[in-house]
Amino acid sequence: RLFFFFFFFFNVPAIGVFPVPGGKIAATIGSIIDSDGTNRYWHVWSSETHNSTYPSAYQQPVVGMLYDTMASFQTWFAPWAVVSYGIQLLPLTPVTELRDDPEWAAILYPRYKDACETAGDFCIENGWSILQAGLQAETGDKSGALKEALAIPPLVFETQGGMGNSLTNTIWFIATRKKVSIEGPATTSTSNIHTNGTKASTSTINNSS
Q1: How far, in Å, CA of 123 to CA of 79, rounded?
Q2: How far apart are CA 171 and CA 157, in angstroms?
Q3: How does residue 76 score in pLDDT terms, banded at 50, 70 and 90?
Q4: CA 5, 9, 15, 20 torsion: positive or negative?
Q5: Edge-to-edge strand list for the sheet holding 204-206
Q6: What are residue 46's DSSP bridge partners?
Q7: Cβ pair 73, 202 in contact under 8 A
Q8: Packed helices 128-138 and 102-119: angle between N→C axes, nearest 10 degrees
Q9: Average pLDDT for residues 191-202, to the nearest whole number?
């Protein structure tokens, strides 16, 4: 993903670690490019202001793997739906505000919550519940998100399961979310699709014609 390229080569210079002329401009351009690509290929929803890239047969709000002729919800490294959802939320940084549309976040959150509950200890111990708290804040429920974040076992933030998010930056992210105002109905590719959070084995579009 272009995000990581621009983060390491332009965002870091922009904050003064390695002073490079034009670093801030390049970081801004990189953020915009990553946001556009994410909402075109990886975040799936339709609303009055956004048309989904995918046909209505694709029923999930994220794409886990994308090929030349196929989009799949499943990832290659985990069977849990919460992982397919969560990888599209990494990491929680200022760029996230450009990347995650509030309408999309509102669609994803109840599915993510169900998927995390289904995955049980796997979700909590591996840090996916941290992203759930951030996503909840993006829907406008900052108080609920803070409560969720504070309930996460402290050791989770100190392990690889913390997904690179400390408790401090998670609280910062929650506290700095803007007020959400969503107008008009927003749905996934198909209207009012409800899925449970068990295994990520559905929703594959294959276009080989």
Answers
A1: 12
A2: 12
A3: confident
A4: negative
A5: 65-66, 70-72, 204-206
A6: 187
A7: yes
A8: 150
A9: 39
Residue among 64, 68, 90 at smallest CA distance from 76: 64
Give the pLDDT score at 74: 86
Query: Residue 32: pLDDT above 70?
Result: no
Cα-trace Rg, the chain: 17
Q: Which residue has the higher pLDDT, 87 or 202?
A: 87
CB of 157 closer than 8 Å to CB of 193: no
Cβ atoms within 10 Å, residue 157: 20
Please name the helix (run of DSSP H) or strand (run of DSSP E) that holds residue 66, with its range, or none.
Answer: strand 65-66
Q: What's the confidence (pLDDT) of residue 81?
A: 95
Stated length of the chain: 209
Return the structure tokens found at 149. Answer: 């974040």
What is the residue whose two structure tokens read 């992203």?
A: 131
